[in-house]
Amino acid sequence: MPSRVIELVVNGRHRELLVRPGMSLLGALRDGLGLTGAKRGCADGSCGACTVMLDGKPVLSCLVAVETVDGAAVRTVEGMAPDGPLTELQQAFVDGFATQCGFCTPGILMAAEALLAENPEPTREEVVRAISGSVCRCTGYTAIVDAILAGAEARRGVTV
Amino acid sequence: MTELIDHDYFAGDGDDLHVVGTSVTRADALGHVTGRTQFFEDLLLADCLHLKMHRSERHHALLKRVDVSGALEVPGVVRVLTHEDVPENWYTVLRLIGVEPNDQPVLPEDRVLWRGEPIVAVVAETEASALEGAARVEVEYEDLPAVLTMEEALTEDAPIIKPHGANCFIYEGHPCRRIRFGNVEHAFAQADHVFEWRYESEPIEHAPVETTGCIVVPQPNGRLKIHSNTQAAFFTLDNTALIIGGPFNRLQLVGGTVGGGFGGKVDVIVEPIACLAALATNRPVEYVYSRLEEMQVSSTRSAEIFVVKDGVMADGRIVARKVTCYMEAGAYTGHTTYGVTKCAAHMPGPYSIPNVWVDAYCVYTNRTPTGPMRGFGVTNADFALETQMDRIARALEMDPLELRLKNAYRDGDLKAHRKVAEGAALVEVIQRAAELTGHELAEEYERMSSLTHAGVGV
Question: Which residues from B are below 8 Å from A76, CB to CB?
């Protein structure tokens, strides 16, 4: 089967790329577009490090054949703060020491972004459920959940 | 929120302690939350080759025939590497600090010692071709008896799986690392109670979210630049140089950004063969473990066994402690010989015990080679020792913290390995922990100090 051209809107930019049959969305983002924020931790959908937003929903990009999402809008960690200043969520991760090795961070940020887009005022349980597809092996999850709740509060304009 | 830092400790210490008690932003946090931290695999090279291994399907076997012709027929496969392509095939990582013998081949020659051991490296244009090529390598085995537990390995009629003639590492002529201090047998005879219990643990996989790997890029000046997620940059560089048979300054290692390590990324496994593949092809080569490989063939924490026998007086003083411990190296020595030494040095725990006897074994089996993991040689030892303390306290109907306070080492105590303790603070730490958790101590224990033996009752 020949390669074909796929169009995506990635972080607001219109992109075209040539993809081989079976190429994953993760492969397209990383190898095709040079966006290495999404990570490959397992390539089988069990770690969540490759999580990005696809038409507003969080997806495991290693399991999405990019040919099947021709024309879709994709958001990655690189699109969170393209102009410099961090978003409330990113800042909360920095301030709350919610990163350690950093490898799971982009995927968890995307899962959290997707949650907050739908539900700006999540409960702790809802946050836990939203990131339950992401594995963090360093910190334990408490700091991460705290940071997402703090980021949500800051985004709502609540002073903590 | 309760203030947990006692600022009185730092009063008057001047400027050099100003960071303690404040919150300092992590230097790497900005990169992590923006996706700009560069992990080794974020180096994107259009002409990069991919290396995958054909691995042993047997625990212990002679290699009767290795046929790579099927791999070479796979479209995209550009090269296979066997032991014949490794200039200095035999190594052991800690030779850099004098450990011998070199018991580990980069790629095995006539036999495999564990299921999962790499046999043939297949280098291809894509990961898929490399995997297909690796699957097409044919190996004919002649099975040998396998030793799969430490106890089995140390029985008298066990098959000896290592060429140096023993199923354990030899420490200066002895089958184990030994500590002899006082006379435990005499003390057991004098003790009011003797307690002996056994503790065991299974291997644990570190399971970093970023799998072990590297990308090696040949440079125009003939050097090799290694982009790696190793936790041990200099051990990796030096061992790799020795294996490929070149000067150290032929290699440049770019690293330090590790997507989770926990001790699992100190082995020197992926870099040497990736360097040889890069030299053989004069192209960049990536060798990264799949998730399956990370879980099944990367090193684990050792399985460990501890047998702890204590002689204890009715008042709780421990007068003798005899420990026999076994750490599983798996098929090759790796770092485990050092973990065993650390384990032995850690005995008998932070207690002043006048009679101590330790035998600590580094045991070979036909299982996945093991390695360091958080608290190398110490974490499981502490589990055994502190569980032992709790069980003694229960048997004597003593408060477990008071038992520890009575036996805690003090400044000036001679430890079993002939070092005099200084700066001991265990007594104060236990007292503070008791206070913070609302655990009431009897007054004589409240008055104890690391500076004196008052109240111990010797």
Answer: 35
Q: Are A95 and A150 in contact (CB under 8 A)?
A: yes
CB contact under 8 A, A138 and B207: no
Using the beta-carbon criterion (under 8 Å), do A30 and B38 form an inter-chain contact? no
B16 pLDDT tier (thresholds 50, 70, 90): low
Please name the CATH architecture into which domain B47-144+211-298 falls: Alpha-Beta Complex (3.90)
User: Across the interface, which of A43, A47, A77 has its CB nearest the CB of B34?
Assistant: A77
Mean pLDDT to the nearest integer, B390-416: 97
Asked if the Cβ–Cβ distance from B35 to A30 is below 8 Å, we say: no
Domain range list for chain B: 7-41, 47-144+211-298, 177-204+300-446
Contact across the interface for B32 and A44, Cβ inside 8 Å: no
Write out pLDDT tens, residues A120-160. 999 999 999 999 999 999 977 999 999 999 999 999 996 55
Interchain proximity B44–A94, CB inside 8 Å: no
Q: For residue B34, give the nearest of A30, A81, A97 by CB distance.
A: A81
Examine the domain organization and report whether A60 and A100 are in the same domain.
no
pTM for this predicted structure: 0.94
- pLDDT > 70? residue B39: yes
Range of the domain at A134: 88-155
* Residue A37 included in any domain: yes
Q: In Å, how far is B192's CA from the nearest CA of chain A?
A: 44
Angle between helices A142-155 and A105-118 (to 10 degrees): 40
* Maximum alpha-carbon separation in chain A: 56
Q: Are residues A74 and A96 in the same domain?
A: no
Q: Are residues A33 and A97 in the same domain?
A: no
- B211 and A41: CB-CB below 8 Å? yes
A109: chain B residues, CB-CB within 8 Å: 33
> Residue B9: what pLDDT?
67
Rounded distance between C-alpha atoms, residue B266 and residue B243, angstroms: 16
Contacting residues of A for B291, CB less than 8 Å apart: 41-44, 46-47
**According to CATH, what is the number of the domain B177-204+300-446?**
3.30.365.10
Q: Are residues A8 and A62 in the same domain?
A: yes
pLDDT tens-digit profile of A31-43? 999 999 999 999 9
Judging contacts by C-beta atoms under 8 Å, the chain B residues touching residue A93 are 29, 32-33
From CA A74, how far away is CA A50, in angstroms rounded?
Answer: 12
Give the pair of three-digit tokens for residue B222: 């003939």
Q: How far is CA B149 from the centre of its chain?
A: 18
Q: In this structure, what CATH number is given to the domain that contains residue A37?
A: 3.10.20.30
**Tokens found for residue B78:** 């550009």
3-class DSSP string for B338-387: HHHHHHHHHCCCCECCCCEEEEEEEEECCCCCECCCCCCCCHHHHHHHHH
Check: CB of residue B10 under 8 Å from CB of residue B21: yes
